[in-house]
Specification:
The complex is a heterodimer. Chain A is built from 17 helices and four strands. Chain A has helices spanning 4-42, 44-50, 64-75, 91-99, 111-118, 137-169, 174-193, 212-231, 234-237, 241-248, 254-285, 301-304, 306-326, 330-347, 359-367, 369-379, 384-408; strands at residues 53-59, 83-88, 105-109, 127-130. Chain A has a four-stranded mixed sheet with strand order 2-1-3-4, sandwiched between helices. In chain A, strand 1 (53-59), helix 3 (64-75) and strand 2 (83-88) form a beta-alpha-beta unit. In chain A, helix 1 (4-42) runs parallel beside helix 11 (254-285), helix 13 packs antiparallel against helix 16 and helix 16 (369-379) packs antiparallel against helix 17. The longest helix of chain A is centred in the first third of the chain and has 39 residues, at 4-42. The radius of gyration of chain A is 32 Å and the shape is elongated. Chain A starts with a helix and ends with a helix. By secondary structure, chain B is of the alpha/beta class. Chain B has a single domain (2-82, 147-220), classed as Rossmann fold (3-Layer(aba) Sandwich). Helices cover 35% and strands 27% of the residues of chain B. In chain B, a hairpin with a 2-residue loop joins strand 9 (196-201) and strand 10 (204-208). Chain B is globular, with a radius of gyration of 17 Å. Classes of the chains: A mainly alpha, B alpha/beta. The A-B interface holds A 1-2, 6-7, 9-10, 13-14, 17-18, 238, 240-243, 245-251, 407-408 and B 45, 48-51, 69-70, 73-74, 76-89, 93-94, 96-98, 138, 141-142, 144-145.
């Protein structure tokens, strides 16, 4: 009779023999994933996300009301944290700057608009120019600016002047009118500067409550964990049907075989994960590794806990184990695992924010094991552990079923 | 005595075994011949408990070996045709799955492992062993419970003459100690070693005595 413990120990010995090769592969994968992370966090597009939007203004802004408005936007309004105004004398210069990506959009202030403004009219609109596909935050900003100019500024000023005229008509002396008008003007300016609308748009958000660095830290860490089970593929290459039959004939059933193998495989993956976490932490403490845009892997609060990550390692190990048990042949195993891992990671938003996908695809991505792992790690939703346990049981049970069929063939 | 009666097995509509009857006495070697796909391996895997038959029984001294898996595992050893050893490990580590440390040392001194010559390559990884070494080690592992019946699926296929003779020497030794064997084979040398031979054809065992007439044997398969 073969005992479960003896078979498990043999599997651990196998892991020990295979470990050096696996660690080399894991280091290579870690370098690739780190390079992806570095590219994301240091890319021009990411840096641009971090920068204020540059808005060009073309035309004569020497008009008192306009210069006051621009000055307020640049120095006093909440929008100053998001918006940088660049003055252009000629529209062609603004167009060139837009084409070269130096500004996000520009506003053309025409003489007609200034005249209309001075005539207390609201019939000429500002002209706003942007390249195609830039109706994002820039559009929101422009709507806001247009509202300030055409609604708030014009209507309020018109109201104040009408009030002044009516008071004069009613025979009020200038000494009585001016302090009242000044007080109302100050109230109006104060009210305009106190607008809070714009700041609501400052956080686009990639996923529930996660900033861009957090999102990509988690997704890349999970992708690395996924590829780690791929690195330990050699664990499955030496196994043979004859071994299963030989062992089954001596009393160690298929279920116990699978459990022993899975346990050894999981422990090997866990060992590698913890080893890497320790190394990253140590390097981070020694300041050999530093992460400019949020501390990736090593010190991220959610990834920090070695205990929390165990649930994900179990799930991904079970997924890898199932794939390698079902698929036969070295090349087929590699191809199947690669395609499945990349596909699942993509749909679950590991490479692009989930919000970029259609709703149906987002739902599917969330339901996949990779999506469940992401939701769990993203917010550490404890209830998701149950789903991960169910997935693990399904993968292990399916592996047992497949092994039984293999033995009987 | 082992008694096999009315063993039936079909895969869908394909009736592979259609009532296998056989008795195996202590110290007897039974050879099963047959063309590829005739059901030899299926019969051995049923007797080893790897597959369930659709009918029939397999007893040892009146005890049902198909149902009593504990007894079956103790009194029987199954050696598959392919190498079942764990490639990354050496002979000692493979044996440790089947024997306790003390038992290995005892068997290496004066037991089945000594007879099989396993002490000569204890530290050699399986991946670097010859075919003969692998087969001897496989038999050594299978013999851990000192079984009364060995089921061998083409035990010397693809082995050279020297290795075959080493294996046959061990079979003789096992037989002389009262052990029985059922061997699925294509090898003439093994046929000559057997006390009785059967040809498995159309799902039934047909008694056969080899008289040196190879064309006649080929014609009957």
């Amino acid at each position: 009779m073969i005992k479960f413990g003896d078979y498990f120990l043999v599997q651990l010995k196998r892991c020990f023999k295979l470990l050096p090769g696996m660690l080399i592969m894991i280091v290579l994968v870690a370098m690739v994933v780190s390079a992806i992370g570095y590219a994301i966090f240091n890319s021009e597009s990411y840096k641009e996300e971090q920068m204020r939007y540059k808005l060009g203004i073309v035309g004569d802004t020497s008009d008192n009301m306009l210069s006051m408005g621009v000055d307020l936007l640049e120095n006093n309004d909440d929008s100053r944290f998001m918006l940088e105004i660049v003055q252009f004398d000629v529209e062609d210069d603004a167009k060139d700057a837009l084409r070269e990506g130096k500004i996000s959009a520009y506003v053309l202030i025409t003489d007609e608009f200034v005249n209309s403004l001075n005539a207390l009219s609201n019939d000429i609109k500002l002209e706003y120019f942007a390249t195609s596909g830039q109706r994002g935050i820039t559009g929101v900003m422009m709507d806001e600016l247009a509202d300030i100019a055409s609604e708030l500024v014009v209507s309020s000023e018109k109201g104040l002047l009408v009030l002044e005229q009516e008071m004069k008509n009613a025979g009020f002396p200038a000494e009585a009118i001016n302090p009242q008008i000044d007080r109302l003007l100050l109230l109006y300016v104060g009210a305009m500067l106190a607008r809070g609308d714009l700041v609501e748009f400052s956080e686009l958000g990639l996923s529930d409550g996660l900033t861009t660095p957090q999102y990509y830290s988690i997704s890349l860490s999970l992708f690395f964990l996924l590829l780690m089970s791929f690195c330990s593929i050699s664990f499955f290459l030496g196994k043979k049907k004859a071994t299963y039959q030989f062992i089954s004939a001596k009393g160690l059933g298929v279920s116990w075989q699978i459990l022993a193998e899975f346990l050894a495989y999981f422990l090997m993956n866990l060992f590698c994960v913890e080893l890497i976490l320790i190394i990253v932490r140590r390097l981070s403490r020694l300041r050999i590794l530093s992460f400019e845009n949020g501390e990736i892997i090593g010190d991220m609060a959610l990834i920090k806990s070695e205990i929390n990550i165990i649930a994900v390692v179990i799930l991904f190990s079970a997924l890898g184990f199932f794939i390698f048990e079902v698929v036969t042949g070295v090349i087929n195993k590699f191809l199947a695992a690669f395609i499945i891992f990349i596909g699942m990671a993509y749909i679950s938003g590991y490479f692009y924010p989930k919000s970029f996908f259609p709703d149906a695809l987002q739902k599917l991505g969330e339901l996949l094991p990779t999506g469940v792992a992401f939701t769990y790690m993203g917010g550490l939703h404890r209830e998701y552990i149950l789903i991960m346990v169910i997935y693990t049981i399904i993968f292990i049970s399916a592996s047992i079923f497949i092994r039984r069929r293999k033995i009987r063939k | 005595m082992f008694e096999i009666k009315g063993i039936k097995k079909n895969y869908g509509r394909n009736q592979v075994l259609n009532g296998i009857d056989l008795e195996v006495n202590a110290g007897e070697i039974i050879g099963i011949l047959g063309a590829n796909g005739s059901g030899k391996s299926t019969l051995l895997s049923i007797l080893a408990g790897l597959q369930q038959p659709q009918g029939g029984f397999f007893n040892m001294d009146g005890k049902d070996l198909l149902r009593d898996s504990k007894l079956r595992n103790k009194v029987m050893a199954y050696v598959p045709q392919e190498n079942p050893l764990i490639e990354e490990l050496n002979a000692w580590d493979n044996l440790r799955m089947w024997y306790s440390r003390a038992d290995i040392e005892k068997e290496l001194k004066n037991g089945v492992l000594k007879l099989l010559g396993i002490d000569e390559f204890l530290k050699v990884p399986v991946s670097k062993m010859s075919g003969g070494m692998k087969k001897r080690l496989t038999i050594g592992c299978a013999m851990n419970s000192n079984p009364k019946l060995m089921l061998l699926d083409e035990p010397t296929a693809a082995l050279d003459m020297v290795c075959r003779n080493e294996i046959y020497d061990y079979f003789e030794s096992y037989r002389s100690s009262g052990g029985s064997m059922i061997i699925s084979t294509h090898e003439l040398q093994e046929i000559e070693l057997c006390d009785r031979c059967f040809i498995l054809k159309d799902g039934v065992l047909h008694p056969y005595t080899y008289d040196g007439d190879l064309p006649h044997l080929i014609g009957r398969l």
